[in-house]
Write a structure and sequence with these properties.
single chain; mainly beta; Tachylectin-2, Chain A; five-stranded antiparallel β-sheet; 2 helices; globular; binds beta-D-mannopyranose
Length: 321
């Protein structure tokens, strides 16, 4: 199956970003957003890049999940000033709600590689910094929406290989646990890239979705090509509910690939990068309802933002295609 693109795509472009003098005017791009429901609002945390190639996070809100208004202020994590090492960019946030608190896990580029940072918010007006994880070069970190066996659980993707002509990447997603969101213990490798096929390199997308059939995990796969022309696509796997180190099923085909002009052409061509998810309806125990709609927000060509949807049941079915 293929996710269904919104007819409003791209739903956010650089033209939607208000000027915030002096650092952010006439921006270059907006992409790879995190998504959350907060009360009646749909929220996105946007990755915005300036013409100085600095990265900023901004909030956008919407009543219908399609038309977003961008707030004219930068997201600042209170307490991040106490850090000891230079952080050049924080980017690719993923938002997960755990027990009523929204946690933001983001990548942070430092002198010695990439780290995963965590912040939190209770109101989406102020944001607190929690900390940076341990000293491994790692990206694409995302938290599960509940503790499992009393521990916070995240998926992450160590950067261990280089893409031709590009940044470091990886071909293995791990599951790690923590009691404080700062010190993490690697538990197991859960999935590897499949050489020669669409997902040779892989990394987690938005937070796992809890369903009666297991944790639905949307991820990105990279097909590597000569000349550094890598293709970023989206796929999905199903993890066991009680032991999410176990992959129950995984899509053979991708579920979204660059096809539209705004995905094929841009700052980094041929990229769809799923990063935010909103589930239409959950039952009283927090399971996604089978016939409700999943909205997936994704970066397109590292330039703008797309939205694609699917019924929950179809996404589960595509894990076993
Ligand atoms: C990855 C990350 C993403 C980016 C993608 C395509 O390595 O850096 O932020 O969207 O590459 O350029």
């Amino acid at each position: 199956m293929t996710l269904e693109r919104s007819s409003h795509n791209p739903i956010l472009t650089r033209h939607d970003i208000p000027d915030i003098p002096l650092r952010l005017t006439d921006v270059t791009s907006v992409f790879n957003p995190a998504a959350a429901r907060f009360g009646d609002a749909y929220l996105l945390m946007l990755r915005v890049q300036s013409r100085g190639r600095e990265t900023f996070l901004l909030m956008a809100e919407s009543e219908n999940g399609v038309e977003f208004a961008v707030r004219p202020e930068l997201v600042e994590f209170r307490g991040m000033g106490d850090r000891t090492r230079d952080v050049y960019h924080i980017y690719d946030p993923r938002i997960t709600e755990i027990d009523g608190v929204h946690y933001v896990m983001f990548a942070a580029d430092m002198d010695d590689g990439c780290r995963l940072g965590v912040g939190l918010t209770r109101d989406f007006d102020s944001f607190e910094f929690v900390g940076f994880g341990a000293d491994e070069d790692v990206r694409n970190g995302v938290l599960f929406p509940e503790r499992i066996d009393g521990h916070y659980v995240r998926l992450d993707r160590p950067n261990r290989v280089s893409l031709e002509g590009g940044p470091t990447s990886g071909d293995e997603i791990f599951l790690s646990t923590s009691d404080d969101l700062v010190t993490w213990t690697q538990i197991a490798s859960i999935a590897r890239g499949r050489p020669h096929y669409w997902d040779e390199r892989i990394g987690s997308g938005p937070p796992p979705i809890k369903t009666r059939d297991g944790w639905l995990h949307v991820y990105h796969g990279i097909a590597t090509h000569f000349g550094g022309s890598n293709i970023y696509q989206a796929g999905v796997m199903l993890l066991d509910l009680t032991d999410p180190t176990q992959v129950v099923a995984r899509s053979r085909n991708n579920i979204l690939e660059p096809r539209e002009m705004y995905e094929l052409v841009g700052q980094v061509p041929n990229v769809v990068f799923p990063s935010g998810v909103i589930v239409g309806r959950e039952d009283e125990e927090g399971f996604a309802v089978a016939d409700s709609t999943i909205s997936i927000y994704y970066g397109a060509a590292d330039t703008c933002i797309g939205l694609a949807t699917t019924p929950v049941a179809d996404l589960i079915a595509s894990c076993v295609d």
